[in-house]
Amino acid sequence: MLLRYLKWRREFVPHGSISLLETPNEVAQNKMFVQGSDRKGRPITLILRARYFQRKGAETVLLLLVHIGFVVNGFDKICSRMPPGQEKFV
């Protein structure tokens, strides 16, 4: 499973990371917040799923790819803030 994820990640994010400039509408809608860390040093993240509105039409696939890029960027930021040896976030 991890190998499939790594292969997908290399294909989806060819430059190694996704800039927030590539997902300006997702950022403007305030869908994800990192709120510091808990007592164990794990990042506390708030994801507001209710702010995601599915659209229908020809641009649906493009909007979905932009949203996935935003989520990948968010998880990259969360993982970069984890202390060594920690594998969970809150």
What does this entry look like structurally?
The protein contains three helices and two strands. The chain is α+β, with helices and mostly antiparallel strands and 90 residues long. It has a two-stranded antiparallel ribbon. A hairpin with a 5-residue loop joins strand 1 and strand 2. The protein is globular and about 45 Å long. The mean pLDDT is 81. InterPro entries: CRAL-TRIO_dom_sf. This is CRAL-TRIO domain-containing protein.
Q: What is the N-to-C succession of helices and strands?
A: HHEEH
Q: State the share of residues found in helices, binned by percent.
A: 40-55%
- Which term fits the overall shape? globular
Radius of gyration: 14 Å
Query: How many domain modules?
Result: 1
Total number of helices: 3
Based on secondary structure, the structural category is: alpha+beta
Give the tally of β-strands: 2
Provide the β-strand percentage band.
5-15%
The spatial strand order of the largest sheet comes to: 1-2
Report the average pLDDT across residues.
81
For the termini, the CA-CA separation is: 22 Å
Largest sheet: 2 strands, antiparallel
Low-confidence runs (pLDDT<50, min 5 residues)? none
What is the element layout, followed by pairings?
Elements: H1 2-12, H2 24-28, E1 32-37, E2 43-47, H3 60-80
Antiparallel strand pairs: 1-2
What's this model, at a glance?
InterPro entries: CRAL-TRIO_dom_sf. The chain is α+β, with helices and mostly antiparallel strands.
